[in-house]
């Protein structure tokens, strides 16, 4: 988030954080509401994100029903893209953190981020071979503990000794704003895990509503991200990196501990994030592969998927630019486009052309295409400028 603020400035960044949070919350709200309506219509206890989208088209307007399976494939692809794109960001994040640590510990052997990405390939392949979620739970617990400690250390450095005057700008050139939008969406969007959470709640009716679990959580997230974004940008100015932990001092033990812990935490989170896309892809491939080759096929699939994320990380070894690109393409599609389309199709027969719902969803679609096109353009432009000059 500090890097996001660097691309827009303090004033529009503060407003933009609220706007992105409101849009993200609203899109989650309409997805969950639609899922509940569909569950009642089909007398189904609960539906996943993908099942909701497919079922809406199955029972929707007659002309759209033949496309229900295609919608499922599209949503699965978007879900896999979010996870694979996100894990590519994780690879760069871990590599950047390790580079910072070892550049200080072994200054006579300075390696590039790309080399650290290659070093990570084998450990990531090994840990991604874990196929059952129950075996990943200990890693998740350990990751969360590491992140809590790192967060405390990062806050200490971020809120301590803020320079006066700061390099931070109140408003940045508007050509940089798209990268703020795609980065903020990447940071705040978590719609792919919403349906499992809502479906597993003892009292799912408390998920929506006022205050409700969703609203309370998103207010907390928006405030937390806004505060960290503002103060991180005030502290480090134009030198702020894709993750503020990378800005922590290289020559202080406490800061090195934070960098090491966050690298470990993200390393274990990598295999958790890979679980969903591997499950989606394997479900599609399994019927076409003989039972005797299932184990070998799973190993190959997981290995190739890890190689893909590492290759993408090596191709774009800039954390901030890759976050912007992945956020603009995948996170905006899963978080804005699909919920809006699904709600519109679900309500189509009950809605007039001049209704509030169509106008509102039309505006959300315009926002989606602005984020997609401008975010991709800005990220690709900066990638070409940065790496064409090398």
Automatic annotation (TrEMBL):
Name of the featured protein: Amino acid transporter transmembrane domain-containing protein
Chief place of localization: membrane
Gene Ontology molecular-function annotations: L-amino acid transmembrane transporter activity
Positions of transmembrane segments: 12-32, 73-98, 110-128, 135-159, 179-195, 207-233, 253-278, 299-316, 322-345, 357-380
Domain Amino acid transporter transmembrane residues, every copy: 1-378
Membrane association type: Multi-pass membrane protein
Keyword tRNA-binding: no
Keywords associated with the record: Membrane, Transmembrane, Transmembrane helix
Species the sequence originates in: Bombyx mori
Subcellular location as annotated: Membrane
Taxonomic lineage: Eukaryota, Metazoa, Ecdysozoa, Arthropoda, Hexapoda
Pfam families: Aa_trans (PF01490)
Annotated Gene Ontology cellular component terms: vacuolar membrane
Keyword Transmembrane attributed: yes
